[in-house]
Amino acid sequence: MCAPAGQHGVFEVNYFPVFFNLADQKVLVVGGGDVALRKVALLKRTGACITVIAPRIHADLLARAAAGALEVGVRDFIPEDLDGARLVIVATSRRAVNRWIASLCESRGIPVNVVDDREASRFIVPAIIDRDPVLVAISTGGASPVLARRLRERVEASIPKKIGEFALWLRALRRPAQRILHNVAARRRFFEELIDGPAARRFAAGDAQGAQRISRQMLARASGPRARGEVTLVGAGPGDPELLTLKALRALQDADVILHDRLVPSGVLDLARRDAALICVGKAAGSAGSTQAEINALLIEYARQGKRVVRLKGGDPFIFGRGGEELQALARAQIGFSVIPGVTAAAGCAAYAGIPLTHRDYAHSVTLVTGHADEDFKEPDWTALAQPATTAVFYMGLARIEHIAAKLKEHGAPASRPAAIIAQGTLPHQRVITGTLADIGAAASRAQVESPALLLVGEVVSLHAALAWFNNEVPADVSQSA
Ligand SMILES: C[S@@+](CC[C@H](N)C(=O)[O-])C[C@H]1O[C@@H](n2cnc3c(N)ncnc32)[C@H](O)[C@@H]1O
After folding, report:
1. 263 Cα: distance to centroid of ligand 1 (angstroms)
2. What is the dihedral of CA 75, 76, 82, 84, to 10 degrees?
3. Which ligand 1 atom sits nearest the alpha carbon of residue 239?
4. Which of 308, 319, 38, 65 is nearest to 189 (CA)?
């Protein structure tokens, strides 16, 4: 039984992408012009047995037929031509004839493509990049062949020239890898490391022998006593997934297990490998969540199972992220680790709010401060933070905004010093509320700001009015948000 159409009567995927093995299969091409010539050239590479039928046939096709590469019938199409065909391409210049042939194919269940007539076609032919055996097919579902070609050009530029040879080399390595590494996960890891590592670089540089030598060493290492897993501490940035570093992206795509904070947005988690286990260990504001000791224990446990573990944190792991504490625990447990920095909230939010953290006319230093108040809370150096020509960025300070403003004023900052709250920074719902130390607390409660939010204090905040750019934002000051 057919599946029902989705919402609005359309299916989520209009075409099912497959790569069809046509070796020794009869393929019929009806039409004998330039288009047929191009289709035959492509089909020929698949080993298909091609028959071309048309009253007039391109000289090149006739020459190929004379050389035994295909069969031709210099005449009009007749329905019996379809006998035994596994695939049909119709490319005559007469639309009515094309459609009639297409309907005959449909009634016989033979997949048919009518050139430039998507409605009459059962399948469409994608734009391809052919670096045998690597074949990349791109389709816009018939919406725009020009867009498909443009995409192909872009993808083509990013694919190494020797990718075909590289794929053949990898194919040759499969047998030895199967012989030596009996476990599927170990083989997958071996190939991932091979493709991302120095062996691939050697191969791309033309040193196939060097690549082979490295691959042998890697196989020997991988088959030794089971390698221990390791943990990569990864900064996910403040929210916009496009602020991830390339290294972070690769770590996400390589990880077996990802332990992430609650603040890491789904757009970032979507970039993880599909079969990676995603475990949220974050705390919602005010809720218990996992304790730090529990998180450390999980990291160690998964690493000891030989897994590649990513500990994914919002912003940068070393800035109010307890990254240091987690690494200390790993070091004590003798688990290998590495760190991939991320864009910290201060840098990301300030950039997206059009507030330069330093500026030669306004601020010569910037200080990142925690505004969080727990039992260990120690008051920061308010005198230093209240100095002119400095920018103070308070993380986790929303709940104590009145206290922070009062302390800064008490230590010499003028009540007129500009201040801003940036909530949901870098995300589509980013909000920027500006004011001064005198009124920023009231503005925050009026605007019902929700976390995560940063408080920025300093003369640089005055630049927001002129430099706001994200979301075509109209700068909002206190008077507007009132
Ligand atoms: C536990 S700290 C983690 C900071 C993180 N490691 C970093 O480098 O950005 C969480 C605080 O960072 C700030 N923050 C994180 N993401 C933010 C965002 N998208 N917008 C505004 N503030 C954010 C908020 O002050 C939040 O309470």
Report:
1. 8
2. -10
3. 19
4. 308
pLDDT along the chain (482 residues), means of 10: 54 80 97 95 94 97 96 97 98 96 98 94 91 91 86 87 92 93 85 86 88 90 71 95 92 91 89 89 64 93 90 96 94 93 98 97 96 72 96 94 96 98 95 97 92 96 96 53 36
Ligand 1 centroid to residue 362 C-alpha, Å: 24
pTM score: 0.66
Q: Tokens 């190494």 belong to which residue?
A: 160
Residue among 370, 374, 395 whose CB has most ligand 1 atoms within 8 A, to mutate = 395
- pLDDT of 481 reads 39
Nearest CA to ligand 1 atom 2: 320
